[in-house]
Design goal:
globular, Aminopeptidase, alpha+beta, 4 helices, 5-stranded mixed β-sheet
């Protein structure tokens, strides 16, 4: 396959721009009532540095021929201290993204495996995520990997 999976670093910032932008445009196209076009491309360096510097967050990149072709971004979350909830921790998977030209090459599956390995290293046995309804491809991917629906977010726009 010739693909290296590793933790991201600050030198990846410029290489991540296209991937973040591709993902952002997908969300902007499908939910312009929620998302705006930012005044920057990708993510600013301080955003990536905050992930790298925090032991409860990670940015995993898929690299081929010095090009970042995929990434996974996640963090550790903890249940509310409300007495109704069991105390628990989970890994919140915020992003898995693979450049369009590399999709269907199992890179997303490999990134998900890296995320689950990171979770296990942290002593955590659950991964959760949120996916927008328009993103049927992502929903199919996650369901195929064994994810189940936990809840749904509904909304009502008031005019």
């Amino acid at each position: 396959m010739g693909i290296i999976f590793r933790e991201g670093n600050l030198s990846d910032c410029d290489k991540l721009i296209d991937l973040y932008e591709e993902l952002d445009n997908l969300h902007l196209e499908n939910h312009p009532e929620i998302f705006i076009t930012p005044n920057f491309r990708g993510r600013p360096e301080p955003y990536i540095k905050a992930i790298i510097d925090n032991p409860e967050r990670t940015l995993i990149v898929a690299e081929k021929n010095s090009e970042i072709i995929g990434m996974a971004e996640c963090c550790i979350k903890e249940s509310s201290k409300f007495p109704l909830y069991k105390p628990m921790k989970w890994v919140q998977l915020d992003i898995i993204a693979v450049k369009k030209e590399y999709q269907s090459e199992h890179i997303g599956s490999a990134l998900l495996k890296e995320v689950t390995n990171w979770a296990k290293e942290k002593g955590i046995n659950r991964v959760q995520l949120t996916v927008f309804n328009f993103n049927e491809r992502a929903m199919d991917f996650y369901e195929h990997k064994g994810f189940k629906t936990l809840n749904k977010t509904l909304f009502l726009d008031l005019d």
